[in-house]
Amino acid sequence: MITKESLQETQQRIHKFIHRTPIMSSRLINDIVGADIYFKCENFQKMGAFKMRGATNAILQLSETEKEFGVATHSSGNFAQAIALAAKVQGIKAFIVMPSNAPEIKKTAVKGYGGEIIECIPTLEARETTLNEVVNKTGAVFLHPYNDYNVIQGQATAAMELIEEHDDLDAIFAPVGGGGLLSGTALAAHYFSPSTKIVAGEPMGADDAWQSMQKGEIVPQTNPKTIADGLLTSLGDKTFPIIKEHVEKIIRVEENEIIAAMRLIWERMKLIVEPSSAVALAALIKEKKKYKGQKIGVILSGGNVELSKLPF
């Protein structure tokens, strides 16, 4: 059970290890949507994404004995970087299982933060098998990229900061992959701004969360196809119940809508965001008539982009 008090304790625990990221607006994007939008810029977070929050909180909760053996995780990119950097800050080892097709920029960053990369073929089964081998060999503590209550509580602090500065938001939009950010955002609103509705954006080509909400149980991700490489994972048994209870809806968006929203943020706000970040804005633009005249928070989840592979 994640309580209001545990979220407040998390915020106090991690604040000196993370950035309090800025909140920005764009008059032009406000005009396009017909609403007042407040972008929480986690692309300016340490290592370039919100995942630094959850990784830091999870590592700070380890015992001294556990820290001696280090930490391990599997990730296609941002959580890999977050664990590598958070571990480096705490002076412990990090073993990162990454699929062979992970973006080179993210592999380079993990190595730069001192993480040890173990590559595997790009399937969830291979990730988990390789991870188990690493944990058995090293004794490292496995930290799940999203299906972990300490990680979820860390991710919640982004929305907590947003709500502290704008306590009258009608809705907050966030992208959904494994659900760590979305479930944390939902809990932050539930405890600190209960009138604020939580809405998720999800790629049409990786819509397991939408399917899960429709069915009322977890529908595993199968063969996802989307430019939003941070949103390819399935919901977890810890994230899904929170999302099911506290998220109002999930809006699915097409690839061209994601790319258009990403380009809009780059061109009009002069912000570097990755495709996964643009999914939340794409969802808002898609259903803008429903949110006309409202005050909307949008979490820009990260900005780790491989510049040689821009979609525009």
Automatic annotation (TrEMBL):
GO molecular function (one): pyridoxal phosphate binding
Keywords: Lyase, Pyridoxal phosphate
Pfam families: PALP
Domain Tryptophan synthase beta chain-like PALP: 16-302
GO biological process assignments: D-serine biosynthetic process
Cofactors that this protein relies on: pyridoxal 5'-phosphate
PANTHER family: SERINE / THREONINE RACEMASE FAMILY MEMBER, SERINE RACEMASE
Family membership: Belongs to the serine/threonine dehydratase family.
Protein name: Serine/threonine dehydratase
